[in-house]
Amino acid sequence: MIAPSRIESLPDTQRIVITGIGLTAPNGNDWQSYRQALLENRSGVREYEVRYFGATLAGVCDYDSLRYQTKKDLRRGTRAGSIGIYAANEAIRHSGLEWDNVERSRVGIYIGVTEHGNVETENEIFQIKGFDYDTSVWSHHHNPRTVANNPAGEIALNLGVTGPHYTIGAACAAGNAGIIQGAQMLRLDECDVALAGGTSESIHTFGIFASFNSQNALARHSDPTQASRPFDRDRNGIVVAEGSCIYVLERLSDARKRGAEIYGELAGYAINTDATDFVLPNPERQAQCVRLALNRAGLEPEDIDIVSTHATGTSSGDSQECVALRSVFGECKSVRINNTKSFIGHAMGAAGALELAGNLPAFRDGVVHPTINVDNLDPQCHLPGLVTGQAEQAAGVDYILNNSFGMLGINSVVIIRRV
Q: Does domain 17-257 have CATH number 3.40.47.10?
């Protein structure tokens, strides 16, 4: 029996549910194929060449960019916008909304990003280098490509949405932050449908690879599929990935009225800040964020069935998150813990949203996807509930807690319950 949540005391107009999921990930271009890849231990990491930086490894998406855009759209827009447009359209299709009859002024778009504009700036500088840095050849598309509300604005243009749209800059906590913002706007009655989640084009900028490399935080491995290895003693850094995951969020009252299929309900959430370092995580603050989300949901740690970890494969980041998890969940005997980055790498602004999507099917099948590439567990990452190697069948899954943390100390936690 599902544990009672504080959310049940709210009126249906204040209860927020997921009715559609659209995504593209390095190992799948829809929710079903993505989930299947996770259950079959199929990685999406491969060899990748980056201008100036050279050969490296990355999680690369291979979606049909012309399904919802023209070639002209692609030339004018951005990769982040294109990935987001694909995910948003897929989410709407999945939701069963009669889109032609939806009032577009009552649709909001809230897209989390880690960084945006670096790709376009690097590309333009590379182009004018061939013209002796003559800025007269600088693209007139540069400004709309790099403004902070792109890619949410590109999605709005593509879908004809006239309600509010903006991006949420929340580093690698942005996927969760997009979901939280969408829920808050629904509760404030600023929209009736929220397209919320995250997107990332990070692999298309050499700067992000060079920066992680200078920090000795960029993963290397002779086998690309084994490069992303959170919690493993031999982990050596982050695998940068691109991707997008966008959810259709609605009020429970509206979803029930149209007979929508519901894939989960937002039970609780929290965002806080370490305020201690630019990049080093603070496990005490992370634990506080988890506890705050649990408290808002009216739940105890033992009510959680799956914890989806943020762990990126860095030495300090993984062990510090494990300190936080142990402080909240103790020996974690009743909780299953997994990690999705081991399959796809770190999709930055899309990470939290994609990782949640990988676990949501467990509400129906009770299967917890594994963490792969944990050949030698780091003792500092000891978590009794950690699922490694192969998927595990749980007795039942009622609550999923999704961790997502980012640089400059931003932490986000989202808890989803089975409906």
A: yes
